[in-house]
Each structure stands twice: as C-alpha cells, then as structure tokens.
Amino acid sequence: MIGRIAGRIEYKGEDHLLIDVRGVGYVVYCSDRVLAGLPGPGEAAALYTDLMVREDLLQLYGFPTLVEKEWFRLLMTVQGVGAKASLAILGTLGPDGVSRAIALGDGTAIKAAKGIGPKTAQRVVNELKDKAPMVMAMGAGPTASPGDDVLEDPSPAPAARRAPAPRPAPAAAPAQSEALSALSNLGYAPGEAAGAVAQAAGDLPEATTAELIRAALKLLAPKG
C-alpha cells in the first residue's frame, strides 16, 4: 500500500498530477481544490495517498491531510458514491465542510457537489452521521510536507526512514469532552464551543457525542 508520496511535480492536469519520486513518476488523482493548493511544476510536494485496486486498474488518490483521506474512504462506503464523487464532494466542501454538513444532516450542502443528486446526498448524511464525530475528533492532523531532500539527487541513496510508531488510541472520553474537542478542531473558540456544548448537554442530558455535536453546531450557526 502506498500511503504517502513526496517528490517533484512534473506536471498538473485537470484532475491529476505527475510526481517524480527519485526517477519514478506517479500519477496521483486529486480534487480541483487540492490541485489548486499545490505548487507548480518543478516544485516539491507531498500528499497522503490512497491506492485503489481493481482488476484492470491501479489508481492513486492524493490528499494534503489524513482527515481528508479518511473522509474520502468513508464517502466511498456509501452506495452510489465512487472515487470521482468522493473527490467532487471534498473538492466542493473541503474536509471541514463535509464534517459540518454530515454532523448537521445537511444534505443540501452535499448536493452542491457536481454529479451528486438529492437522494445520494441524503444517503451520505444518513449513513455517515454517526461516523462524523470520530473523524472530527482527529483534528486537523499533520499536513503532508516534502522533506528538505526531496529535490536532491542523493548518492548514495539514504537509508529508508522508519515510520514513527502509531500513537495508542486515547481512552474513550465523555460525550461532552468529545463534542468540545470536535468543535475546537473545526475552529470554534474554546469559550463559544464550551458554551454551546454545555447548553446542548443541558437540553439533551442523555445525548450521544454525535447528537451533542449536531445540537451545538445548530446553536453556533449564524442566526437570521
């Protein structure tokens, strides 16, 4: 499995780019939003990747963050949503926008993506609403960035870097703490996030994390 690519951009197409990694060129498909955020040909770039394997096809899809990669994988678990549709949704809303839309049950926002109809949009919301808190709790996470030596031609080749050991998953936290963490990761100030979660918890004392997040986001949404 190829989980990350770092190298020099050879060219950028309409829906993909070619990255040269020490003499080997990799075609990586990305959303238009991700492509627009990458530097031009000749510059260094890095992306987290997901390799799709089919009988007659191998395709790499690239993402600047692990959160966006996780949403890509989750969106494709929904019937009728393939890789192209997943990229369209992420390209239109971004990972934070997808998190908000699904947490709030906002099928209209999902429908704004090219090629996504109302039935598919509602199916996305219904099937993924309980998984949104898990992804939101991941936070912004690291952004893929090329190392200083990506554009160099080292001789001899350096020893392969050992990937850092994964951190153990934190113990389950109360619903209010998880909801507060998710809202903070979406960029809300600690004070307003805490106030909204507290009010939501007061109104819904038996609420799950997902229910608290939805209720708090509604309280934080602009009025009028």
Automatic annotation (TrEMBL):
State the residue spans of region: Domain III: 173-224
Q: Where is this chain's protein located in or outside the cell? A: Cytoplasm
Q: Which InterPro entries does the UniProt record give?
A: DNA_helicase_Holl-junc_RuvA_I, NA-bd_OB-fold, RuvA, RuvA_2-like, RuvA_C, RuvA_C_sf
At the top level, the lineage of the source is Bacteria
Region annotation Disordered: where it falls in the sequence: 139-176
Residues in DNA helicase Holliday junction RuvA type domain copies? 1-62
Gene Ontology cellular component list = cytoplasm; Holliday junction helicase complex; Holliday junction resolvase complex
UniProt GO molecular function = ATP binding; four-way junction DNA binding; four-way junction helicase activity
Q: What UniProt keywords are attached to this protein's entry?
A: ATP-binding, Cytoplasm, DNA damage, DNA recombination, DNA repair, DNA-binding, Helicase, Hydrolase, Nucleotide-binding
Q: Where is this region: Domain I?
A: 1-64
Q: Which residues form the Holliday junction DNA helicase RuvA C-terminal domain?
A: 175-221
Q: Pfam families given for it?
A: HHH_5, RuvA_C, RuvA_N
The Gene Ontology biological process annotation of the record reads:
DNA recombination; DNA repair
Homology family: Belongs to the RuvA family.
Subunit structure of this chain's protein: Homotetramer. Forms an RuvA(8)-RuvB(12)-Holliday junction (HJ) complex. HJ DNA is sandwiched between 2 RuvA tetramers; dsDNA enters through RuvA and exits via RuvB. An RuvB hexamer assembles on each DNA strand where it exits the tetramer. Each RuvB hexamer is contacted by two RuvA subunits (via domain III) on 2 adjacent RuvB subunits; this complex drives branch migration. In the full resolvosome a probable DNA-RuvA(4)-RuvB(12)-RuvC(2) complex forms which resolves the HJ.
Q: What is known of its domains?
A: Has three domains with a flexible linker between the domains II and III and assumes an 'L' shape. Domain III is highly mobile and contacts RuvB.
What is the role of this chain?
Answer: The RuvA-RuvB-RuvC complex processes Holliday junction (HJ) DNA during genetic recombination and DNA repair, while the RuvA-RuvB complex plays an important role in the rescue of blocked DNA replication forks via replication fork reversal (RFR). RuvA specifically binds to HJ cruciform DNA, conferring on it an open structure. The RuvB hexamer acts as an ATP-dependent pump, pulling dsDNA into and through the RuvAB complex. HJ branch migration allows RuvC to scan DNA until it finds its consensus sequence, where it cleaves and resolves the cruciform DNA.
User: Any idea what this protein is called?
Assistant: Holliday junction branch migration complex subunit RuvA
